[in-house]
């Protein structure tokens, strides 16, 4: 029997909505709790340098108030390494980060930055954190990830999600190569109900990390119910005010 594929739910964009109003609602930790109750196998959150969505306090609460494994996405900077070593999440996924990008646009150039990545990979692994490198499905990157001593590669599925020709085959080949090198294989980025099936069929894949679509789809699955409830409360309020 093949091992079940874990689903890591990325709750960054619950924080995006919260931050749009500057208050505490909606709380990404509450959303994480709901996701775990519904069967999510872990929670993923990306602490970006500019704190545009998840903030330090969110991450601390995700780590300490929730029993589900926390996968912290982070750039390989001294600041993020210090936070990760203090927090000791279950896993850290090292991603490239550019301030001006809307999301993580491409995989990490592990092959071109082995010296810079060596310290965070070594220190996190020594602290007992599972280290994952977010890479494009390219042979040189997988080879470099294995050389670095990472335990996991997360394959960037963005180009596949955009429908680029040959990307599913590149993901399949990258997964085969990573498995042969002893790496655990995860994947994520841009996955939806429509495109997740062929990725889930990749032999040996152990985990998918999905965020933007899940939070967006929750609007379509949930909006009707909350409109009904709001109408009910408005009617109750109006009835209570009759004759006042
Ligand atoms: N995996 C990694 C490493 C990511 O950086 C992201 C985006 O934050 C995801 C998965 C999830 O991508 P999406 O939000 O498009 O589902």
Automatic annotation (TrEMBL):
A GO molecular-function annotation: pyridoxine 5'-phosphate synthase activity
Pathway this chain belongs to: Cofactor biosynthesis; pyridoxine 5'-phosphate biosynthesis; pyridoxine 5'-phosphate from D-erythrose 4-phosphate: step 5/5
Superkingdom, natural source: Bacteria
Family to which the UniProt record says this protein belongs: Belongs to the PNP synthase family.
Location(s) in or outside the cell: Cytoplasm
Residues where 3-amino-2-oxopropyl phosphate binds: 10, 21, 190, 211-212
Catalytic activity, reaction form: 3-amino-2-oxopropyl phosphate + 1-deoxy-D-xylulose 5-phosphate = pyridoxine 5'-phosphate + phosphate + 2 H2O + H(+)
Keyword vocabulary terms for this entry: Cytoplasm, Pyridoxine biosynthesis, Transferase
Active site (record annotation): 46 (proton acceptor), 73 (proton acceptor), 189 (proton donor)
EC number(s) from the headed UniProt entry: 2.6.99.2
Site (Transition state stabilizer): 154
Protein task: Catalyzes the complicated ring closure reaction between the two acyclic compounds 1-deoxy-D-xylulose-5-phosphate (DXP) and 3-amino-2-oxopropyl phosphate (1-amino-acetone-3-phosphate or AAP) to form pyridoxine 5'-phosphate (PNP) and inorganic phosphate.
Name of this chain's protein: Pyridoxine 5'-phosphate synthase
Binding site for 1-deoxy-D-xylulose 5-phosphate: 12-13, 48, 53, 103
Top EC category: transferase
Major location (coarse): cytoplasm
InterPro entries: Aldolase_TIM, PyrdxlP_synth_PdxJ, Pyridoxine-5'_phos_synth
